[in-house]
């Protein structure tokens, strides 16, 4: 039976590492009847953390997807005549910076987000990264301030941090009753009533009680702030508010708060403690009330495959509405290898209906694929379903060729949906199989892992012949090597971590390159004059890839050879002229040239471009770029001087120093090449009391002494 999409919620749970995401998801599964026992992270029994490494390390590495149902509205947990089952697709995302890719791809397909904050630690570095990603994808969200039972918890302080640090309009819709160990419930500011949860039912039931006498004034103040924020957003309520704020009804508050949340004008904030089973049920009700359904978006835009090579302004937009009767369109957002069913593609269906056993078109490859089975996911278990409709999230098997970001659609109505952009890897290690038996297995394991993870790449070093695997950080690569051992039974030896440098050009240079081979019979001839320079900035940034401009007049280079010239430069960019590192961004203008009526062909012009690129490198001011990491250190004040001194020695630039929860924070930009083993040094400098988080920020030009060393090493003279 088709579900009413109005009662579907595709939501993610995101936060900084250790803010309690997986514990919160476990509570949701318990309350929605998906699991009969609450799995605890510290026992290594959490349902959503299904990989062996996740259970050992107590962190979430991959986005586990699950489906459950929640009855809403209810009266103290009891079903009412108007109660409806809301269908939730929930994605639990990792909080560690090395796995930001998982958050990135989840946000692309979600309609709403529950953002967890620790009531003790507040807004932490990865909270900021994930918040920025959610802004980028314009995902409406609400805040759940977890760990209210912990010493040092402060709900209103966290709300203020969200306003100050994340520049978002956080508005409390609950206030905590009791602090730390005495935290026992919340005041619901919309209904203006107090809720106390029962410990004996693990929070499944609760009592509505009068607002505690010592909170009456505070409740009045914060309810007034909530109503003022809503009235400021909704002009229809502003007049009522001016006359008498108490005349605004509960239904009017909910309707306006829902609209403001979807519009990202307000972030509703809720207090709770997942571990103590308090506040999660209230949060689930709030998801139903305030976060969007697939119907709240008019539809998703795409383009026809025939328009893919046109400039953006010339592409005709196609709209697919969230309706099962529309042609089918879906986006594959994650590829996983399952030991029982093989290659599994997670996808979000945006329009139409897909039946198991039917065919779809993959608009990237242009191939038809038969979907043999469709599943609804619960962590790493699959529940087979007959079909999937618009607005839902599922997984399918049967694909011969599928990648993250591919569009799957009805072959009679082709469409390309906007794909996903992922950062390039910044750190690499050389690996080699331990035994001869591991050689073939290693190739297969690496191919499967690279297929699953767009930020993991594998290449062969031309000089040494070694296999280099690259990723977003040391933990990322550790876990991938560990997965090779566990899942693919491949043992490898690892080299030292190495930085993934890049190359760039800093000025314009003009050059003529003639490629010719004439030794009797038909020869080769290609002659080009071109200008090579840094790419034109778009919105203040250099765009990725090659900007190619053809300014040849009068057919001096025949039209049919122009694409070969462009191809030659595009291929050549994979290796820079100094040390063979890739060039990300470049502009080439083809100015003139000449051809031979017999000897010229496309390959001659392609080779002329490749040779010319190598020749002109130094004249165009080629430089080495290195990855710069953004680091945040939280430390007791007495260790601050030593830590700042150490960062300066590492060529770091300190950008900000501040206070957080009685400790000091240091924010700095530091080259990745200087940061290997930093955690151990920090532990020594602070006697184990300081903590740090690090994420990729940008690429910057290296000082000349570093450049020389990098070039020397790349050429094998180190």
TrEMBL record:
PANTHER family noted in UniProt: RIBOSOME-RELEASING FACTOR 2, MITOCHONDRIAL, TRANSLATION ELONGATION FACTOR G-RELATED
Superkingdom of this protein's organism: Bacteria
SUPFAM superfamilies for this protein: EF-G C-terminal domain-like, P-loop containing nucleoside triphosphate hydrolases, Ribosomal protein S5 domain 2-like, Translation proteins
PROSITE patterns: G_TR_1, G_TR_2
The organism's taxonomic lineage, starting at the top: Bacteria, Pseudomonadati, Bacteroidota, Flavobacteriia, Flavobacteriales
Residue span(s) of domain Tr-type G: 6-295
Sequence similarity: Belongs to the TRAFAC class translation factor GTPase superfamily. Classic translation factor GTPase family. EF-G/EF-2 subfamily.
Coarse class of the protein's main subcellular location: cytoplasm
Name this protein carries in UniProt: Elongation factor G
GO biological process: ribosome disassembly
Native source species: Flavobacterium cheniae
Gene: fusA
């Amino acid at each position: 039976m088709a579900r009413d999409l109005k009662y579907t919620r595709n939501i993610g749970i995101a936060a900084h590492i250790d803010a309690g995401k997986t514990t919160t998801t476990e509570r949701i599964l318990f309350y929605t009847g998906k699991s009969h026992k609450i799995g605890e992270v510290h026992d290594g029994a959490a349902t959503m953390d299904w990989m062996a490494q996740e259970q050992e390390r107590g962190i979430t590495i991959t986005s586990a997807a699950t489906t459950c149902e929640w009855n809403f509205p209810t009266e103290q947990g009891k079903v009412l005549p108007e109660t409806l089952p809301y269908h939730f697709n929930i994605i639990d995302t990792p909080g560690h910076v090395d796995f930001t890719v998982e958050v990135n791809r989840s946000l692309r397909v979600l309609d709403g987000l529950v953002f967890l904050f620790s009531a003790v630690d507040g807004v932490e570095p990865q909270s900021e990264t994930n918040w920025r990603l959610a802004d980028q994808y314009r995902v409406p969200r609400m805040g759940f301030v977890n760990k209210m039972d912990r010493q040092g918890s402060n709900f209103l302080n966290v709300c203020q941090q969200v306003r100050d640090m994340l520049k978002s309009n956080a508005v409390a819709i609950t206030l905590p009753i009791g602090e730390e160990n005495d935290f026992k419930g919340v005041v619901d500011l919309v209904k203006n009533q107090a809720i106390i949860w029962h410990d004996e039912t693990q929070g499944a039931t609760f009592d509505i009680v009068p607002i505690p006498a010592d909170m009456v004034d505070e409740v009045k103040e914060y309810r007034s702030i909530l109503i003022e924020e809503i009235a400021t957003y909704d002009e229809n309520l502003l007049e009522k508010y001016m006359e008498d704020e108490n005349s605004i009804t509960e239904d009017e508050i909910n309707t306006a708060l829902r609209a403001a949340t979807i519009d990202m004008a307000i972030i509703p904030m809720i207090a709770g403690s997942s571990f103590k089973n308090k506040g999660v049920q209230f949060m689930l009700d709030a998801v139903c009330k305030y976060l969007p359904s697939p119907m709240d978006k008019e539809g998703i835009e795409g383009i026809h495959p025939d328009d893919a090579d046109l400039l953006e302004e010339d592409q005709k937009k196609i709209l697919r509405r969230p309706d099962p009767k529309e042609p089918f369109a879906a986006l594959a957002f994650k590829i996983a290898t399952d030991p029982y069913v093989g290659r599994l593609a997670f996808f979000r269906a945006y329009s139409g209906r897909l039946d198991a056993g039917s065919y779809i078109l993959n608009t990237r490859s242009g191939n038809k694929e038969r979907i043999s089975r469709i599943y609804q996911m619960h962590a790493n278990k699959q529940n087979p379903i007959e079909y999937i409709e618009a607005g839902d999230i599922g997984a399918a098997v049967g694909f011969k060729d599928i990648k993250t970001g591919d569009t799957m659609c009805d072959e009679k109505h082709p469409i390309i949906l906007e794909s996903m952009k992922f950062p390039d890897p910044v750190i690499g290690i050389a690996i080699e199989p331990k035994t001869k038996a591991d050689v073939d297995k290693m190739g297969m394991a690496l191919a499967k892992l690279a297929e699953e993870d767009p930020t993991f790449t594998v290449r062969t070093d031309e000089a040494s012949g070694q296999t280099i695997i690259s990723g977003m950080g040391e933990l990322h690569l550790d876990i991938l090597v560990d997965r090779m051992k566990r899942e693919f039974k491949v043992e490898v030896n690892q080299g030292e971590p190495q930085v993934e440098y890049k190359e760039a050009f800093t000025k314009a240079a003009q050059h003529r390159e003639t490629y010719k081979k004439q030794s009797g019979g038909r020869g080769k001839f290609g002659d080009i004059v071109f200008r090579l320079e840094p790419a034109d900035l778009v919105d203040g940034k250099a765009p990725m890839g090659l900007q190619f401009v053809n300014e040849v007049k009068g057919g001096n280079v025949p039209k049919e050879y122009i694409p070969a010239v462009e191809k030659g430069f595009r291929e050549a960019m994979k290796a820079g002229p100094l040390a063979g590192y890739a060039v990300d961004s470049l502009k080439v203008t083809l100015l003139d040239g000449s051809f031979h009526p017999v000897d010229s062909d496309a390959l001659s012009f392609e080779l002329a471009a490749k040779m010319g690129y190598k020749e002109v490198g130094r004249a165009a001011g080629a430089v080495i770029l290195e990855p710069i990491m953004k680091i945040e250190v939280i430390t007791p004040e007495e260790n601050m001087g030593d830590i700042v001194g150490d960062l300066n020695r590492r060529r770091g630039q300190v950008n900000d120093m501040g206070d957080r929860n009685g400790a000091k924070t240091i924010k700095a930009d530091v080259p990745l090449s200087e940061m290997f083993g930093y955690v151990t040094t920090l532990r020594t400098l602070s006697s184990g009391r300081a903590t740090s988080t690090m994420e990729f920020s940008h690429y910057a030009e290296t000082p000349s002494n570093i450049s020389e060393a990098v070039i020397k090493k790349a050429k094998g003279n180190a």
